[in-house]
């Protein structure tokens, strides 16, 4: 079994039109490739909800605020196609940058509020790049539903708001973070971790879990944030960009775990930036 690889908007449109004519429900799973179990969990969820599943693979230059990060982003298309085939995904859409951004392309989609703070504060332009390409992928595929991981929790909110604000008729489905057995959130960028860094990396999730547990037990937020940041640095991380409690439903800042909340973190381990988040239940 193999997955059909499509590289042009014209072929994408033609195939989706034939599916629509047959009355089939269509799902899209946007990715930047280097597929791992996190991505595959989204594809499995999509296959449960739709009769045709399109996985998109596009390393989107507009969302990289750091050119080195763009250059070194893992590109493994043949392996990705081989991983998708046994699952039964129906199409891998892999456009070239000129297909997505033809000469003269001049539109940027900016989603306010939920793009601000957290990763938005440290990756200028990143969520504009994400929102622009995701709007295009939603419109190009015309899918009924789209699947995104909670690992990129702020991105999930940006994409939900984008679809709602622009009246794009698509259901955005969030899926739980898939972790390695030691707790590290699986991410394509984990391949950049050196062996000694890989041994330290799970301490990020461990520190988050401990903080969530303390907050659920009624501990005050400010001291927990300070001790958790200190624990992450003591484990060997070089910098904690943010560690913040936000409302689960709309990402507004919270002063205490008084509503279903998320504790979100970004931290540097050597040259690799890791993000993670955990749910915090009310006391
Ligand atoms: N561990 C995971 N569990 C669930 N979903 C995930 C996981 N990792 C990535 N995803 C989701 O897969 C989709 C594509 O993400 P992407 O291709 O950027 O992979 P990634 O592993 O997040 O890579 P990176 O963070 O290094 O860019 C996003 O919706 C993302 O949230
Ligand atoms: C949603 C996405 C595919 C847009 O390029 C990307 O941000 C990602 O892989 O999470
Ligand atoms: N995984 C979200 C996309 C990015 O980090 O660029």
Automatic annotation (TrEMBL):
Record-linked HAMAP family: PanC
Role summary: Catalyzes the condensation of pantoate with beta-alanine in an ATP-dependent reaction via a pantoyl-adenylate intermediate.
GO biological process, one term: pantothenate biosynthetic process
Keywords: ATP-binding, Cytoplasm, Ligase, Nucleotide-binding, Pantothenate biosynthesis
This protein's name: Pantothenate synthetase
Entry superkingdom: Bacteria
Compartments it resides in: Cytoplasm
One GO MF term attached to the UniProt entry: pantoate-beta-alanine ligase activity
Database matches in PANTHER family: CYTIDYLATE KINASE/PANTOATE-BETA-ALANINE LIGASE, PANTOATE--BETA-ALANINE LIGASE
Family, similarity comment: Belongs to the pantothenate synthetase family.
Keyword Chloroplast included in the entry's annotation: no
Gene that encodes it: panC
